[in-house]
Amino acid sequence: MKAFFQEQYGRPATVIARAPGRLEFIGNHLDYNGGPVLGAAIDRGVHVALAPRTDKVIRLISQSQKNLVELSLDQVQPVQGTDGWVNYPLGMLKVLRDEGMSVSHGFDLAVTNDLPMGAGLSSSAAIELAAGYALSSLYNYSVDRKRMAELGRLAENTFVGMPCGILDQGCSAFGKKDHLVAIDCATNTFSNVPMPQGLRFWVLNTQKKHALIDSLYATRHRECMDAFAVLRLKVPSLRDLASADNALLAASGLSGDLLKRARHVVEETARVRDTHAALTAKNVVRVGQNLTASHASSRDLFGNSCDELDFLVERAVECPGVLGARLTGGGFGGACMALCDSQFGEKEANGLADAYAKKFGHRPTIFTAATGDGAAVVS
Length: 379
Ligand code: GLA
Prior knowledge:
- By secondary structure, this protein is of the alpha+beta class.
- It contains eleven helices and twelve strands.
- The strands form two sheets. Strands 1, 2, 3, 4, 5, 6, 7 and 12 form an eight-stranded mixed sheet that branches. It has a four-stranded antiparallel sheet with strand order 9-10-8-11.
- Strand 9 (322-328) and strand 10 form a beta hairpin.
- Helix 3 crosses helix 4 (145-160) and helix 6 packs across helix 8 (256-280).
- Bound molecules: alpha-D-galactopyranose (GLA).
- Alpha-D-galactopyranose binds next to helix 5.
């Protein structure tokens, strides 16, 4: 990072922050429904470096794009097209200023990463969190961890225009090595749960990027809000329906896709709670079964899987050493995550990738990840 910054701007960075990518462990599309979710910050992430300027210019560059973007502090607007990644740091700048951070001069900013972009690991939230910590340090403005995660989500919702919940930013902020991150998204309460020893993740990215991925996500978001509008008189929030209350759902007048979406939210909520309890009881078999059951619910009820993800999950769970597997993140493409013990390694992951390539004509990217620490200023 230091070398890249020096090379680009001809002077050293004065502050560097780092934030990790995340895996969604379980709790698919529950965050914006106010449900419980479990995620993990992983041991790969992004660095954001800054140095102050004396004028009102902002310059931004990323190691993977290499195109310098320049704008004025007085005209911070979302950028369209291939430079769209700048909206993550610019969004953070905007929400931090709205929050009260005083910014009288511009800055040079650079991003480097060891996190594959667009692989469903939320490089966007990692850039938001790293930029948030770097900017607040540069401008001497203090923000606590919870608020920083909330500001990341706010930047994404209001500046980038993606109606996500707080899963990605919450995991990137509250990650802890050897732990998962548990979030109660109704109250934005964060805690860490020990990760079972001896387990790690294998991630297989389908490389399938649905052209409508953002609009499909927004459609599911709207369907959940519509389902909740029907149920509003009976329950304070969708997740307050335990799975035993499926009868109530059936009697609610909901039908078709809205009923399916609501059932997913209800049943997935129960599954997250059960998984949390199984983690505490060190019942890893149960944890794995829940992950795979979560995938089935995303596929059959929430409608956000695809043939490629289904294939990877089906094949993965047949392999010795795979406790469970599921799509991770928004869905409609993106990555499959498998929770594995030491019997499943690189050779087995390559075998899965070969089988996938034979069927779909292209290879998924594969890599392994462990849990890692959350966002922080590092220099
Ligand atoms: C994306 C969003 C998250 C969450 C997941 C699905 O990763 O950014 O907020 O909704 O999808 O659970």
